[in-house]
Each structure stands twice: as structure tokens, then as C-alpha cells.
């Protein structure tokens, strides 16, 4: 379980939540499955088995009603009553057919289909007998009708009523089996739910116990370690198993506490070392105080030299102030020129951007022109091919016209041989010959037009190919121009940025020069004050001598404090 030990708390809690969510989803899916199965069973029970029982029972009732009307028909002697009974029998027969048809539309197994076939055969036999009985009853032969019905009709009716009862019993048995299967499925679903909930509970408890135990254990370890630190024991390190191998938040906490412990331990050692150094330094400070007294005398002599240097410094500061003021004016002029250059560069950048956009539009338009040119060249090529096909068709027409002219000539010759009998045929042959000559002439003119069209088409194809090359060259040139504009825009942007930097630097330099001018004035003032203060420094050197004696006393007190600090540090274990 090392992988679980190294996981962060958030991921551990997420795993626990994920297990419970997956369990809930699984319970929901199983519940949905078993509920859908139960719903299908109940729908099948109601829509199939109960419907079968209903239709079979209704068929039995209708047959018994038909039998009752048949007995009444065989008993009455009134025509109106016979007509009324015949109508009722027909209506009941129609209802019985509709009921049987509804039964046939339901899902049937092989046994039910066999029963239905036998029922159909019995119904057909019964209807034959019923028809004969009705004929006898309506013709006044009631005794013969009753005898026929008793001998055959009742036997057949009882037969298919028995079939209907068998069908009802079978459907009820199927319904009972479906109910038993539904109950068994419910028991199975109940057991599956119970087992799954128990398994999910056990898994959740085990996983939750592991996570909680890891969290509580690591927190207790951290609290125990911090308690030892609170008592002043910094000598112990965090266990490597808790800090190095654990990648969770507790591992990070252990490593952080360990680092804090090491830093505090190093700090205590440094303080101890510093206290020792402080004690030795205080002794050295006492010796240094004596040397400072001797140095005070040398300082007094140096003050006289400083006074002379202050006067010279005051003169040089005045000259420096004038020079800096002139330099400030020049820098302000540079800053103004930089602002103007910045504005010009920004305008140039805008123009370059506009030019780049125009070039991109030109490139897009050249591509569209190139596509249109390709399409036009293709259309002209197709037109050339079609004109050649037309030329072939015209040549065929010319050949047909020549053949027609030859046939007309032959017909004229035959008509001349026939004399008066062939005069009408000669006139027709002459007209056919004229039409053939006109067709040949028209075909010749069409041929000349086609040759001219082909020549112009070839010229147009050549021109379109040249145009296509020029358009492609123009597109390449436009693309190159677009790339050049893009590079120009990049260079202009770089120049604009540099000019902005120059302008900002000039403004900062202007501010700096103003500060320098003010500093120069202050330097002059301070130099004047320095000349005045040199006189008072001499008196201060005398006071310094007295202070050196106080420093010697303070250094002795500092040595005592260093000893006390060392004693306090010994209380900590490092």
C-alpha cells in the first residue's frame, strides 16, 4: 500500500469519494436493469397473457350466445323474429372473428399456433353446419334443423369451445410462470443489492480506515516531533521513511519541519560561535579604544588640511554647476527631438501596416484571378474540343449531301428513261438535288466558320496560358512584396521601440540632470557649511577622547553579556 501512502490527501479523499460514487452508480444501474426487466415481465403479462385469456374467454361467451340464438331461431315461426335473430347471429359472428383476429396478432408459441389451427378448422366445420341449420330453420323445417344441430353442431361447438378453454388455461399457466419468474428475479435482485451494499460498505470502511489511520499517524508523528522542539531538543532528525519516501502533504510537512529544525540548530550554533567571537571582540575593542585616543590627535591636525580643501572644493563646485546646467539644456533638446522622431516612426508603422494589408488583399485578389484564369482556360479548351466534334459532324453532313446529290442525279437519269411516266419523279429528283447542293454549301460555310473559331480558340488558349503565367508571376511578386512589407513593418516596429526607449532615457536623463544641478547647488551649500563645521570638529575631538573612555567601559560590559548568552545557549540540545 506504499502507493496509497505516497498519495496526497486530496487524492486519497478523491479515491474514497470515487469508490462510493462508483458504488452508487452501480447500484443505480443494477436497479434500473432489474426494474426494466420487471417492467418488461409485467407488460408481457398484461399485454400478452392476460389479453389471451380475455380474448379466449370472450370467444367462449360469443359462441354460447350464438348457440342460444341458434336454438331460438330453430324454435320460432315468425319471420320478423327469424330476421332479428339472423342479424344478431351475424353480429356475434363478426365480433367473434374480430376477437379471434386480435388473438392471432398476439405473440404465440408453437403449441398455441397448433391449437389456433385446430380451432380454425372446427370453426369452419361449425359454420358449414350452422349455415345448413339456418337454411332448414328459415324454410320451416325446424325439426330437421334441431336434429342436425344436435347431431353435428353441438359436438363441433363443444369441440372448439374446449379449444378456447384450453387456450385460456395455457395463457393462465403462462401468466403464473411469468409471475413466478418475476418473483424469482425480485429475490435475485434483492440478494444482489444486499451483497453489493455489504461489499461496498466493507470496501469503504477498509479504505476509509486506511486513509484515516495514515492521516492520524502522520499528524501524531508531527505533533510529537514539534513537542520535542518546544522543550528545546533540536538534536533529533525527522525519520527518513516519513520525509524522503512520502510524497504526500505530510511528507512535505515532515521535510519542512526537518529543514526548520536544521536551520534553528545551525542558528543556535552560529549564535554560540558569535557569542564567543563577541567576547574576544570586546577585549579587542578595549585595546582599540586606546588607539582611538591617539588617532584623535591626528584628526585634529587633519581638520586644518580639510578646511583648506573645502575652500578649493567650493570653487570647483561652482564651475561644475554651470557646466551641468548647459548639459541639461542640450539633453532637453534631445528629448524633444526624440518625441518628434517617435511620432514619425508611429506614422510610418501605421502606413506600413496599411501597405501590408493592401498587399495581402492584392495577393488574395491575384489568387482569385489565377483561379478564374484556370477556369476560363479549361472552358476554352472544352470549346475547342466541341468545335472539332462539330467539324466532324459537318464533314459527315457534307458527305451525306454529296451522296444525296449523286442519288438525285441517278434518279433524274432513270426518270428521263421512263419518259412521261417519270416526269414527276424527275421534278422531285431535281428538288432533292437542289437541297443537297444547298446542304453542301451550308456545310462548307459552317466548316469555314468552325476553322475560324478553332483558330481564335487556339489563340485564346495561348493567350490564356500567357495570362496564367503572368498572373502567377504577379502573385509571386505580390507575395514577395507582402513579405518585404512585413519585414519593413517589423523593422519599423523595432525602430519605434528603440526611439521610445531613447525618448524615455532622454526624459530620465533630463530628470537626472535636474537632480544633479540641485545636488551641485546643495554641494556648494554643504561646502560652505563644511568650512564652518571644521572649526567645531576640533572641539569635537576633545569630546571623542572622553567617549573613548566610555567605549572601554562599555566593551567590558559587552563581554559580560556575551558570557551570559553562552550560558543560555547551553540549555538547547543540538
UniProtKB/TrEMBL annotation:
Residues 212-397 form the VWFA domain. Residues 288-559 form the Methyl-accepting transducer domain. Residues 213-269 form the HAMP domain. It holds the Pfam family MCPsignal. PANTHER family: LYSOZYME-LIKE PROTEIN-RELATED, METHYL-ACCEPTING CHEMOTAXIS PROTEIN MCPB. It comes from Propionispira arboris. It comes from the Bacteria. One of its GO terms (biological process) is chemotaxis. The keyword Secreted does not apply. The chain crosses the membrane at residues 13-35, 192-212. This is Methyl-accepting chemotaxis protein. One of its GO terms (cellular component) is membrane. The lineage of its organism: Bacteria, Bacillati, Bacillota, Negativicutes, Selenomonadales. Belongs to the methyl-accepting chemotaxis (MCP) protein family. Residues 264-298 form a coiled coil. Keywords: Coiled coil, Membrane, Transducer, Transmembrane, Transmembrane helix. One of its GO terms (molecular function) is transmembrane signaling receptor activity. CDD domains: MCP_signal.
Amino acid at each position: 500500500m506504499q502507493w496509497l501512502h505516497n498519495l496526497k490527501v486530496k487524492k486519497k479523499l478523491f479515491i474514497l469519494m470515487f469508490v462510493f460514487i462508483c458504488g452508487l452508480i452501480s447500484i443505480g444501474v443494477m436497479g434500473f436493469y432489474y426494474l426494466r426487466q420487471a417492467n418488461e415481465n409485467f407488460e408481457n403479462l398484461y399485454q400478452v397473457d392476460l389479453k389471451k385469456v380475455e380474448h379466449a374467454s370472450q370467444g367462449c361467451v360469443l359462441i354460447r350466445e350464438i348457440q342460444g340464438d341458434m336454438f331460438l331461431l330453430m324454435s320460432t315461426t315468425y319471420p320478423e323474429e327469424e330476421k332479428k335473430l339472423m342479424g344478431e347471429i351475424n353480429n356475434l359472428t363478426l365480433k367473434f372473428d374480430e376477437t379471434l383476429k386480435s388473438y392471432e396478432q398476439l405473440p404465440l408459441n408453437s403449441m398455441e399456433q397448433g391449437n389456433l389451427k385446430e380451432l380454425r378448422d372446427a370453426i369452419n366445420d361449425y359454420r358449414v353446419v350452422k349455415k345448413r341449420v339456418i337454411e332448414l330453420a328459415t324454410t320451416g323445417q325446424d325439426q330437421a334443423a334441431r336434429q342436425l344441430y344436435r347431431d353435428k353442431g353441438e359436438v363441433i361447438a363443444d369441440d372448439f369451445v374446449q379449444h378456447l378453454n384450453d387456450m385460456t388455461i395455457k395463457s393462465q399457466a403462462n401468466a403464473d410462470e411469468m409471475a413466478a419468474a418475476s418473483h424469482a428475479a425480485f429475490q435475485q435482485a434483492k440478494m444482489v443489492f444486499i451483497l453489493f451494499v455489504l461489499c461496498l460498505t466493507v470496501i469503504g470502511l477498509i479504505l476509509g480506515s486506511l486513509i484515516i489511520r495514515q492521516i492520524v499517524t502522520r499528524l501524531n508523528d508531527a505533533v510529537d516531533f514539534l513537542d520535542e522542539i518546544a522543550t528545546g531538543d533540536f538534536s533529533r532528525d525527522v525519520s527518513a521513511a516519513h520525509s524522503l519516501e512520502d510524497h504526500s502533504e505530510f511528507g512535505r510537512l515532515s521535510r519542512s519541519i526537518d529543514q526548520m529544525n536544521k536551520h534553528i540548530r545551525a542558528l543556535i550554533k552560529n549564535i554560540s560561535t558569535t557569542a564567543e567571537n563577541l567576547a574576544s571582540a570586546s577585549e579587542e575593542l578595549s585595546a582599540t579604544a586606546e588607539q582611538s585616543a591617539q588617532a584623535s590627535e591626528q584628526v585634529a591636525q587633519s581638520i586644518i588640511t580639510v578646511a583648506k580643501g573645502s575652500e578649493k572644493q567650493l570653487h570647483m563646485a561652482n564651475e561644475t554647476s554651470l557646466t551641468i546646467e548647459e548639459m541639461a539644456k542640450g539633453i532637453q533638446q534631445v528629448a524633444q527631438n526624440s518625441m518628434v522622431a517617435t511620432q514619425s516612426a508611429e506614422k510610418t508603422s501605421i502606413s506600413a501596416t496599411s501597405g501590408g494589408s493592401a498587399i495581402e488583399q492584392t495577393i488574395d485578389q491575384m489568387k482569385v484571378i489565377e483561379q478564374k484564369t484556370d477556369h476560363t482556360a479549361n472552358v476554352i479548351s472544352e470549346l475547342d474540343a466541341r468545335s472539332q466534334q462539330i467539324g466532324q459532324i459537318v464533314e459527315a453532313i457534307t458527305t451525306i449531301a454529296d451522296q444525296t446529290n449523286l442519288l438525285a442525279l441517278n434518279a433524274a437519269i432513270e426518270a428521263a428513261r421512263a419518259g412521261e411516266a417519270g416526269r414527276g419523279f424527275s421534278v422531285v429528283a431535281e428538288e432533292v438535288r437542289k437541297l443537297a447542293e444547298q446542304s453542301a454549301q451550308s456545310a462548307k460555310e459552317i466548316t469555314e466558320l468552325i476553322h475560324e473559331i478553332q483558330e481564335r480558340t487556339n489563340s485564346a488558349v495561348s493567350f490564356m496560358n500567357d495570362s496564367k503565367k503572368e498572373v502567377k508571376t504577379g502573385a509571386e511578386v505580390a507575395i514577395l512584396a507582402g513579405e518585404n512589407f512585413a519585414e519593413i513593418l517589423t523593422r519599423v516596429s523595432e525602430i519605434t521601440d528603440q526611439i521610445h526607449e531613447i525618448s524615455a532615457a532622454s526624459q530620465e536623463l533630463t530628470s537626472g540632470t535636474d537632480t544633479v544641478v540641485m545636488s551641485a547647488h546643495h554641494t556648494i551649500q554643504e561646502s560652505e557649511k563644511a568650512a564652518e563645521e571644521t572649526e567645531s570638529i576640533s572641539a569635537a575631538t576633545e569630546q571623542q577622547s572622553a567617549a573613548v573612555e566610555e567605549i572601554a567601559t562599555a566593551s567590558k560590559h559587552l563581554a559580560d553579556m556575551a558570557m551570559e548568552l553562552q550560558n543560555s545557549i547551553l540549555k538547547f540540545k543540538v
